[in-house]
Structures are given as C-alpha cells and as structure tokens.
Automatic annotation (TrEMBL):
Keyword Cytoplasm on entry: yes
Keywords recorded for this protein, A-Z: Cytoplasm, Molybdenum cofactor biosynthesis
Chain segments carrying region Disordered: 1-20
Catalytic residues identified in the record: 121 (cysteine persulfide intermediate)
Location of this chain's protein in the cell: Cytoplasm
Protein name in UniProt: Sulfur carrier protein FdhD
Xref: SUPFAM superfamilies: Cytidine deaminase-like
Source superkingdom: Bacteria
Family in the record: Belongs to the FdhD family.
Function of the protein: Required for formate dehydrogenase (FDH) activity. Acts as a sulfur carrier protein that transfers sulfur from IscS to the molybdenum cofactor prior to its insertion into FDH.
Length: 278
C-alpha cells in the first residue's frame, strides 16, 4: 500500500492552519483555570483572476492552490487544471491574496457569485435558481465496495486528520480506493473547501473523473457536496452525518451512491445502493 497524502504542509507563502488562544476552562463543579489552547485558523483568501478581485473564500490556510483549482472547476470556470497558466502571490507580505492567470474562462465568473463566500456554505449568495441548477452528465462507474470496508473508513479518515486532532475544529474530505486504501485527505473549516482542495489535487494529478474512488466526508451532506462530487465524477459519497433532502434527490438523479450515518456498526444508504455489496 502506498502512503496516503495526509500531510499538512505549510508553504512559506501561506499562513499556518492553527493558532494559539487563551481559554478559561470552567468544569461543571470546580474552580476555573486559564490555559492556552490550539484552535483552527479561519482566514479570508482574496481570489483574483487576471489581477481582478472576484471573490473572497473563508478557509483554513494550506493547499490554497488546490482549493482555488477545485473551486473554479466546481463553478464551471475551468474545464481542467491545464486551463490555469499560473498562480501568483501579488504581494509577498499578503499571504491571503492569490491571483490566477487563466488560458480562458468557460464563463463569466462574477455574474452570479457575490464578493464573499463564507466557510459554512458553498453556494450561498447565488442570485437565481438557475445558477444553482447542476448541468452535468450522470456519474458512470462500475465501482463496487463492500459494506465491511465502508465501515472501516471513518477510523481511517480520522487517522489522517492532523489539524482536527489538534483543534477539533475542522472538517475533512478523504478519497479511498474500493479496497479501503486512503489516497488523500484535506481539512478545512468549510466542508466544501475541504472537498474543493481534494478535487483540486486530483485535477492537478490528471485523475478526474474520479470514477474509481470513494469519497468520505466528515459531518453532514448537503446539496453542494453532492454537486461537487457529480462534477468530479465520484460514484460513492459517504458521510458520518445525515444528508439533506436535496442531497438525496441530487444523488439519486445523477447516479451517485449516497451513504449517511456511516459507523462501524452499519450505515444508511439513501440513493443507488447497488454499489454497496456483501
């Protein structure tokens, strides 16, 4: 087995993913005490295209280029990583500004996205119902995965979450093979950001569509996570939490096997159960 890409490098041009804060701990019955705690960083990333500011992404620093690549792919601005000529940090003293030079944009980016995107929502601020609609083919894949392997994935994902281990304050997205091998993990305060980083990595490696991979996300599954999985061609999306009604509807419509409440003891399969085998 090859080691999974679970490291959390901090490039010199980005801020750290964690910070220290003073906290006053109050137990239910005892005197309080003050100490230092490690917390996850949430910071704005101003995204520019061709030198022009287009949006601000609230994210955990680290893997910023993967984040932007996956984000632009999910938004339909680029078709693959080759559409990106270069990433530039226009100001060495401002790690939270990233400029992207594109070969060509597939659509005008700023028509239906406001200048701010918070870390809890990947589609908040869209200006019309039409802009939320997903235009993509159904996911085609012959992948199957045993339910025994599926029940082992949450523990394997947790083992690849160094920032969560230190802070308890970030989400994670992990890609697995059908045999349960962890391929890559990305963490972020925003669950959709973590997935964008993962998809960005796959685009850079020329691995999209990810028709032979299983995606596991921490927390719940909402519409935008299924939307991003469809765009990346991921056939199985599992979560440790619950899906929303729109997530279930979208997964059923686009051929994604959607699993919720994944535990060592079992799971709920909400859409396209044929890929889960004994």
């Amino acid at each position: 087995m090859h080691p999974a890409d679970t490291t959390d490098p901090q490039p010199s041009d980005t801020a750290p993913a964690t910070a220290r804060a003073s906290v006053f701990t109050l137990p239910s019955s005892a005197a309080g005490s003050e100490r230092e705690d490690t917390i996850a960083v949430e910071a704005p990333l101003e995204l520019r295209i061709g030198g022009r500011p287009v949006t601000v992404l609230m994210r955990t620093p680290g893997h910023d280029e993967e984040l932007v690549t996956g984000f632009l792919f999910g938004e339909g601005v680029i078709a693959d990583a080759d559409d990106i000529i270069a990433f530039e940090r226009p100001d060495a003293d401002r790690a939270n500004v990233l400029n992207v030079r594109l070969m060509v944009a597939r659509r005008a980016f700023n028509l239906d996205r406001p200048f701010y995107s918070n870390s809890s929502c990947g589609i908040c601020g869209k200006r019309s119902l039409e802009s939320v609609e997903l235009h993509a083919p159904a996911v085609q894949s012959s992948l199957t995965i045993s339910r025994t392997v599926l029940t082992e994935l949450p523990e394997r994902l947790r083992a690849g979450q160094p920032v969560f281990a230190r802070t308890g304050g970030v989400h994670a997205s992990g890609l697995f093979t059908a045999a349960g091998e962890l391929v890559a993990v990305r963490e972020d305060v925003g669950r959709h950001n973590a997935l964008d980083k993962l998809v960005g990595r796959a685009l850079n490696e020329g691995q999209v569509p990810l028709s032979d991979r299983v995606l596991l996300v921490s927390g719940r599954v909402s519409y935008e996570l299924v939307q991003k999985a469809v765009a990346a061609g991921i056939p199985v999306l599992a979560a440790v939490g619950a899906p929303s009604s729109l997530a279930v509807e979208l997964a059923a419509r686009f051929g994604i096997t959607l699993i919720g409440f994944l535990r060592p003891s079992g799971m709920n399969v909400y859409a396209n159960p044929r890929r889960v085998v004994d």
